[in-house]
Amino acid sequence: MRKLCTLGTGALTVAAVMGTGLAAHASDVGPAVKEKADGYQVVTLPNANVGNFTRRTVYCPAGKQAIGGGGEARGNDAILVGSFPTPDGRGWIALGRQNAYPSVGISVYAICANPR
Asked: pTM to 2 decimals?
């Protein structure tokens, strides 16, 4: 199982200043983001098997924008190929693949907030 999570640039800056990496401080950074992001909400598209390289997209509730997100690829030899915001900034896209199988399990997460 491989995971990729992307947070807003403020969270990355905090982790970089701390000097020990984002993974070690992800739970510490979360509350700071919640306090500064009006309407903070995490939206999840649960795991589902899809064909290799098939994009799965989760959208924020109406009126909110994605300020971060991530994806997870599940399965033997699963690889998360891409994880990025939708072109309109209202959601998050993830896709993956497996070498020996025609499908892969993909979960997608969007960190949403009210626009400023």
From this structure: 0.71
